[in-house]
Specification:
It contains 10 helices and 5 strands; from the N terminus they run βαβαβαβαβαααααα. The chain is of the alpha/beta class. It has 2 domains: 118 residues, Rossmann fold (3-Layer(aba) Sandwich); 68 residues, Arc Repressor Mutant, subunit A, CATH 1.10.10.10. Strands 2-1-3-4-5 form a 5-stranded parallel sheet, with helices on both faces. Helix 8 crosses helix 9.
Length: 195
């Protein structure tokens, strides 16, 4: 199973600890930050670009929905998994294009199913998969859609930044789009519209 980087966000430290403890059952999930302050959480997400964000909805200074919007305004698109004690937000979570919605206390089987589904979908962006890109270009495009920089992509694929930049130019040219931001937005929109 491919490794998943994750950030946990909850205004209650005990809830963060519980979430971290249950995620220990899934060694492929690497927690890179745990935040109680939503503003700090946004900075962490934008800086580290995790694959997944587990977040509470009801927090004193900002709702989880507001946090999601602020992160996306920075053109960073992790998969958001809401973790809450309240089920009345489920419809709003779907409208916010959350990847999943888990009710506290977390059921380990629900979490396992969620992570398995994430693994199945994380590399499937229909717009990219059905394009004329080469396999390597699709690989690079998927990582661009995760918000990775050329340097980060180079480190993941063991290629030079220059090589990745060359792939970026060819990808934009073949897909007839102008910027990487356009590709991220397009990949993000198509990914969720096909979900």
């Amino acid at each position: 199973m491919e490794n998943i980087t994750a950030i946990l966000i909850d205004d209650e430290k005990l809830a963060l600890k519980r979430m971290a403890d249950i995620l220990k059952h899934f060694p492929h999930v690497k927690i890179i930050a745990s935040e109680t302050d939503p503003e700090q959480a946004i900075e962490s997400i934008v800086k580290t670009k995790p694959d997944v964000v587990f977040l509470d909805i009801e927090m004193p200074t900002m709702t989880g929905f507001n946090l999601v919007q602020k992160v996306r305004d920075n053109f960073v698109f992790p998969s958001f998994i809401f973790v809450t004690a309240f089920n009345q937000y489920a419809i709003k979570a779907l409208k916010a294009e959350a990847f999943d919605y888990l009710i506290k206390p977390i059921d380990i089987d629900d979490l396992r199913e969620c992570l398995q589904r994430y693994n199945r979908k994380q590399n499937h962006l229909p717009y990219i998969e059905n394009s004329s890109l080469s396999d390597r270009e699709k690989q690079v495009a998927r990582l661009i859609c995760k918000g990775k920089t050329s340097k980060e992509i180079g480190e993941i694929l063991y290629l030079s930044k220059h090589t990745i930049d060359t792939h970026r130019r060819k990808i934009l040219e073949k897909l007839n789009i102008r910027t990487s931001a356009d590709l991220i937005a397009l990949g993000h929109t198509r990914m969720y519209s096909k979900k």
